[in-house]
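Two folds, back to back.
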Amino acid sequence: MDLVRRIVQRLRGHGDAPSPPALAKRVRTAFRLDDQQWRSLVGEVAAGARAWTHAEWLDLPVRDRVALYAASGGDRATVERLAESRTVHGPSFLVDRGTLRIDLGDPVAVPDWLLAAQEHDLVARLSIEVAGSEPVYVAGTSFVSGLAFDPETDTVRVEAATNRGAIETTVTMRPDPVADAESGERWADQTGASWWATIDADRSEPITLTVTIESGGVVRTVEAVVPALAAAAPLHARATPAGVELDADGLDVHVTALSEAWGAGPSPLALDARVDRFGVAATIPAGRFAVTADQPLDLADPSVLTLPMAERAIDLVDLLVTPRGWSPGEAAVSLVVRNPIPVHDRGRRRQRLLLDEVREQAGPLRERTVAMCFGGTGAGDSVGPVARELVRRGIPVDWVVTDHSVTPPEGTRPVLLHSREWHEAFTHARYLVNNAEFPHYVRFREGQRYLQTWHGTPLKRIGRDIASPRLSAGYTAAMAREAAAWEALLAQNAFAAETLPRALGFAGPVLLEGYPRNDALAGDPGEALRRATREALGLGDERVVLYAPTWRDAARTEQGRRAFVSHLDAAAVHEQTGATVLLRSHSNAAANRGRISSQGVLDVTAHSDITALLAAADVLVTDYSSVMFDFAVTERPQVLLVPDVDQYRDDRGFYFDLQEAPPGPIVTSTEEVVEALAGAGETSEQARAFRERFAPLDDGAVTARVVDAWLGPQAPSSPSR
């Protein structure tokens, strides 16, 4: 019936007027419209709304129909709030079990009939793990999104079938707080939606699982196909003082990061809790790691899947590791590495409750600082020197880290992002320092003093200056709140001081003092950092070329993630020049590039400090990255490898034409890079001119000037008597 109605609607059409789905798509991006464009859209939506039937309204997803209703009345605030919620929280909302009325979690003034849950609003979600060859063990979590699963009244039924026919399967329900935390639900509690089952079959042929969920009177069915598994070697995972030791009956077992760029060179047989990353001891980064071998693997004891995930976790130093069986789209066996945040504080729903609790109990601001670098993944940039200077002046600093693989600056206290400690620290800190943005859910308090250091002089257009912005509603809203909270914005040079405020929507004071991160590149500190970094990387006196390209907005993987784009044949550069090539992927694309290594090429993407790598390099090869403005401090040779300059200019746009005054040769191929390296001397007039234009203030004493300009000069010490 639903299909027939939609066909009739398509045949009937709406004349020349846009259809409800077409207008809904435009309303989702209304946050990008100027006032005139918004008024035009309101007029179109209002005209259409008068003609649409209830059925046409209800055919739309709930957020679209509510947003269209708000747009028809010119309520832009509600439209933008719904768009932000869609991008930040996904499809999560709460559904009343009795009335099936949708609660979006935010008060909206719309007729009740618009919030009646439709069939397409009640989406079934399923996650499974599979292990064992005969019988097959299956662990799963299945629920109707928005309906909190009640194990007293709701049911899950699993049917299994192979080419030989159906197989009777018994489901055992079990509460699993970890499964709830991983459900992605912001409003509904899915602790009771977890189960396990055994299937009396082997995995020599595919097994089709049909999972039927009945929840709150709603019935949904989801299907998953478990692929056939060849004869598999059992994998043993044991906890040791060092970490997780893997053994698969003598096979060459490897651990490969799926979601994090980690380390360099061959993967280890033992996933140590502590790893040496270029001379710095750190823990494994959080993420999912595939366990692979030269033949299929299986968990040694597949019945472990009958345990809740919290009970399967191996507690190591500063992290939790959980062995996982096959799940759709992943390897047969994987290890999930998590931060040691208590399970009752994990997941969107529990984070919301924790955040509300901390905010309701907030006390006065404290004389402390919360510092964050690249969303908690970094420990340097200009935030690091500023944090060390604040500590030197007697202001304690809490340094936010996504996990304990990030080593915070000396003298600061690491605080795990999303932990209770983090929420408490941010809510009560008087001083805030960041080079990007804080999480979308933060709310700044009156009296907080926020220094935004940003993360580079821009060559490519950013923020509001991008001609065709692809920024989401969530990011756009978060950046607007950010800019409104900044007390001051830092700029490296006069060009950035003019460009950044406009692009980022900031109307406050700009501190034109240079970049604190470049203090380490100037004079004696630069030479000391150069020697220390080369030693840590195992380099001698050979010539070192650092290749550090930026990311491309339009380059995406099949999964829609940013793809790594490289235009340099690093191996050829080494072969033809004898130089060691350091390869540094941009953090936005690094997780999807895989490891790159060959003779004379060292992958340093996992190195925590780009400034240290710039200090170690004799020559920088880059493209449109802001590192060119930092490397200018050294006055060493630079080469710009830009074969896609026309496409990049059309996609993103530039603030100025580098051809007019580049820091070094502009080339389009590896062969031309090699030629440029052959002719590159120690320092050129071109390099000196570029430094004079973009780094004249980076004299090695920037950090103290920046903190003085922000908080006032430090009082002189009393003379000793």
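---
second:
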Amino acid sequence: MTLKDLKDVTYYDLNNEINIPVNNQIPLNKDQEALAAFLEQNVEPNTMKFDSLKARFDYLREHDYLETPAIDKYDFSFIEKLYDYLRSQDFHFKTFMAAYKFYAQYALKTDDGDYYLENFIDRVAMNALYFADGNEDLAMDLADEIVHQRYQPATPSFLNAGRARRGELISCFLIQSTDDMNSIGRTINSALQLSRIGGGVGINLSNLRGAGDPIKHIDGAASGVVPVMKLLEDSFSYSNQLGQRQGAGVVYLSVFHPDIIAFLSAKKENADEKIRLKTLSLGVTVPDKFYELIKADADMYLFSPYGVEREYGVPFSYVDITKEYDNMVKNPNIRKTKIKARDLENEISKLQQESGYPYVVNIDTANRENPIDGKIVMSNLCSEVMQVQTPSLIDDQQQYEKLGTDISCNLGSTNIVNLMTSPDFGHSVEAMVRALTFVTDHSNVDVVPSIQKGNRQAHTIGLGAMGLHAFFAKNQMEYGSKEAVDFTNIYFLLLNYWTLKASNEIARERHETFVNFEKSKYADGSYFDKYTTQDWQPKYDKTAALFDGIFIPTKADWEALKEAVMRDGLYHQNRMAVAPNGSISYINDTTASLHPIINRVEERQEKKIGKIYYPAPYLSNDTINYYKSAYDTDMRKVIDVYAAAQQHVDQGMSLTLFMRSTIPAGLYEWKDGRTDKMTTRDLNILRNYAYRKGIKSIYYIRTFTDDDGEVGVNECESCVI
């Protein structure tokens, strides 16, 4: 029997029996039976056997499965020592879904697809050896972190580490276009190239002139951003890694761009086929001024990027609209159109109800909290990566007259439940930072020079977290309670502290900082003011008990770190970002990202297989009441939790809002006496609440409809860690 010839297996049926209550109880034992059957009927008979570890590695070398130079940095005796340690840890998958996802998506298979060539321990070992880059101590540390599932590398990194024939280790990319045909052409080429090598691509189109703007030397007018969006969508559809995955991209536009209505309309179900976008994601960048105009129920002006760039001498995205708004309104040289701010707000909410889009990036909030010299102008496909960029200038030969900087995302996640049991929280985080540093140091995206330059100058990483709701339920805490918010605050404070410590240590070792460190708020020490002027300690006894035995820095500790950073610098321009998580959270037997679960027993539709059921981690009679669905949770509680984390996260977080078409009674007080149907007003209120709480971005709006369907669940597999 091979993987192509599986007959008479029982694990799918056993797993499906979880959804059939027995005496009004969820039969969780059926999942354990399904797991045992899967390992017995699928994994064991179809895993290639070897006489020894050496024989296995020799086979992988001979058949070109192994990136030999990476492994040759170690004596084989050390590799045997590493395996001895990993085997002694007695790792076992806890659920059928975890094992199924690993073997279906991550385990190395023979070229004909008939046999598995590795188990979870093998993949852990390969990640540890690969990311440690010959450092035996670090390899042991990483093996310890990954096998105990305290650290989870992003999907591209975890999947590709150590493979001879592999894709990139990077999760996704961010690029921007400026207002000329050369740049547009280069942007489309970059989208093709980046989609080919893997990962989602975010593209900023705010600098492009709007429809009707003049074109130099031609007696005509520009067509605006929508035709460029169509070209990009076709590019992603074409460049799909030989059909292995759908190319994925998102385009961002400022809410003050004159094409904003057409931009949003292109995603509507009833849009004309000539302009309708089926697969391209949409995001809007929203300055503070938009919220001010909404509050005042005022008119708002949309400004021609062409006119703005001519007046200010920089691309549209680099002008502070909130600061310059009144001057731009008065300036007769800038073409403008007038609409009602609340009309645009409602258009955004209508589209979010219909499709889940657009993502919303509160761009002034992101820049206000940004400690780096420069400007954030956009985000990525999952709205959590926020880094400064500089525009490029392209000549008529499609060469870089001036090479700017763009962004690649090197991501990984802590597993909150497991990291909280680490024997040394700080040491664990340092190992994770060093693994991520390997990815940024060894990324080679020369097909897009602006991304190559940005990565080499900034050394950015994005360490995040998953399993927050699992941690709350396991410890019998209500999601969004004051204790839950307090825990989130301290947990992310610790991640911030220890990633700073690790980055500072690497800068000291290498005598190197990220470019322009001296212009940052880290260099002048002002970044640390909020930590050195108040004590950040748990506010509640329950929270304090959860952190018992875990070091929490005092003002004096922060002061010492501030002095070290000012003296020796930081290696990484950016360190933290919270991605939405996808299949990788199942392998970790935990809940995704920071948001609440959707169902106590989640139903997943798997390609060619059918439905697979996944019980919430640690689900029991003791925890079941703490597992309320996101669709039945006040989204202000979710926003409060994310806001507690955001104050310590230098980049962004993928915050999804979960709504029902019919809203449960009593959930939102403003619904009292009004319709129980979800309206644009509900989304308007929640977006404004998130803005006031300091949230940098809102990812999808997911709506559970009255016919048990879901709107807004088209997630990018490469970006969800």
